[in-house]
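Invent a record, attention on tokens:
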Amino acid sequence: MANVAAGTVFQPVLTSYGMSVLGQKLRIADAEMQLSEAVENVSAGHASYARVGNFTGGLIASFIKSIG
């Protein structure tokens, strides 16, 4: 990781692939929910799903980085 960049993104666009990823079902603590619901719960401040959100965010980011 020789190059490190920082900045601000204006008006991000979610592609069809990103929309399909958000529609995937997850099993969290014996409850099944969509990834988008888990992300909303993390955004609302429910700490119990924070680790799952960090994991999936890292997973998606690493997949996108491996493509490019």
Summary: The chain has one domain: 16-67. The helical segments are 16-22, 35-44, 50-67. Strands lie at 25-28, 31-34. The chain has three helices and two strands.
